[in-house]
Write a structure and sequence with these properties.
This protein is mostly helical. It has one domain (20-71, 87-318). Helices cover 50% and strands 1% of the residues. It has helices spanning 36-65, 67-70, 79-82, 92-103, 105-116, 133-159, 177-210, 214-219, 222-226, 233-253, 257-275, 288-311, and strands at 20-21, 317-318. The chain has a two-stranded antiparallel sheet. The chain is elongated.
């Protein structure tokens, strides 16, 4: 018989979603409200502005302490080139400032998600609530192999005179290629991760919390990501195709690992080729031929990563959070022995003792106890007189 302090099982919520895709994870919390995504976005922007000011101060102090480390070699360059106002990505300090201004988006969006996002905070990365390292390693390795083949084929066709002929001797190269390559390897992975956390993580989940269909979450962040790059129309279309592929991968694989891997390998290859003088890192123009080849390769890489995610059985959705059953504020003290009377509320009138109450059956046969009852009977008290003393003729 159950005692009254036992709690009933939680009642399932029929109206709640039973599985949540990556773009719907902000709806997974029971305390979700329509305004929470707006508060999350505003808090993230506030954190980013504060961290940007701090980062700029740190970089400024570092440049003052040792300016020779960051100075670019401008020997032989014209005065107009030395004082040009455009961003020079071959300059270590300008490259570091650009990377740092993007990397600080990581703590900004992380802190905002910690305060106003779903729990755990790792849901910003994947439906598993963490970075799935094994799948991330598979995506990194696959992207590296395919990008190496793509660039090798591109340079081979260019050398053979097939396709568009480009100038392989850019006007500017880094003054110290080894130092620049070290900056690329150290900073680029964090820069790519920051962009994916914001544009494919936070933005997709904010939009997906209001609009359920994944196309809205995939396509609406594309313009913001695209126009953050200073390219011509062909370059912007190329970036848009990449953003669509990254958004699709994030939804299709249930996390940012594949999109991050594709983004990291792409940028590292491009920056390292720029450090070696094979491409011009300050070039902002492209061509229709380059756009077609790039879009075809992006689609191929996306297809391969999706197939690998299916083969590795990468989770695409997260289940609902179990409904927590809150115990009452005041609970009766648990009794060591079961109650053999009917529970009665404190405000009810007393039970009528003349009415037979329903009682549980008492056990009829108790187990025997060793030594009880005694075989010779229980001992009797010695005889006493009226005053309680032993009789006088009793032997002492």
């Amino acid at each position: 018989m159950s005692s009254p302090h036992y709690l009933p099982p939680p009642v399932p919520l029929a109206k709640e979603e039973q599985s949540y895709s990556f773009h719907r994870l902000l709806r997974r919390n029971h305390d979700y409200r329509w305004w929470r995504p707006l508060a999350f976005a505003g808090t993230g922007i506030g954190f980013y502005i504060a961290l940007l000011i701090v980062a700029m101060l740190i970089i400024f102090v570092a440049a003052l302490v040792n300016p020779a480390t960051w100075a670019a070699d401008t020997s032989g360059a014209s005065d107009s080139m030395a004082i040009e106002a455009e961003l020079d990505m071959t300059s270590p300090i300008e490259f570091a400032i650009t990377m740092a201004s993007l990397i600080i988006m990581i703590p900004a969006v992380y802190l905002a998600y910690l305060l106003l996002g779903s729990k755990p905070v790792g849901l910003l990365i994947s439906v598993a609530g963490r970075l799935r390292w094994r799948w991330f390693g598979v995506a990194i390795g696959t992207s590296a192999l395919l990008f190496a083949a793509y660039f090798a084929l591109n340079f081979g066709l260019t050398a053979a005179g097939v396709g568009e002929q480009t100038d392989l001797n850019p006007t500017k190269v880094p003054a110290d290629p080894l130092f620049f390559a070290l900056l690329v390897i150290l900073l680029t992975p964090f820069q790519c991760a920051a962009e994916e956390l914001v544009f494919r993580g936070a933005m997709m989940q904010v939009i997906g919390s209001w609009l359920k269909h994944p196309l809205f979450a995939i396509l609406l962040p594309v313009p913001l990501f695209t126009f953050g790059h200073l390219y011509d129309v062909y370059g912007l279309l190329d970036v848009s195709a990449f953003a669509i592929a990254a958004g699709y991968l994030s939804w299709r694989t249930g996390g940012l690992e594949a999109a991050m891997a594709m983004h990291i390998i792409n940028n590292i290859f491009l920056f390292l080729l720029g450090a070696m003088g094979q491409i011009d890192m300050n070039e902002s123009s492209s061509s229709a031929t380059s756009l077609i080849f790039s879009v075809i390769f992006t689609a191929l890489l996306t297809f391969v990563l999706v197939k690998l995610s299916d083969k590795n059985k990468v989770a695409r959705t997260a289940g609902p959070i179990p409904q927590a059953t809150k115990p009452p504020l005041l609970q009766p003290w648990p009794m060591a022995q079961p109650m053999y009377h009917q529970p009665q509320a404190y405000w009810a009138p007393p039970m009528d003792p003349s009415v037979q109450q329903a009682q549980p059956p008492y056990p009829q046969n108790y187990p025997p106890v060793p030594g009880y009852p005694p075989t010779g009977g229980y001992p009797t008290a010695p005889p006493t007189d009226s005053s309680g003393n032993p009789p006088e003729n009793q032997d002492r």
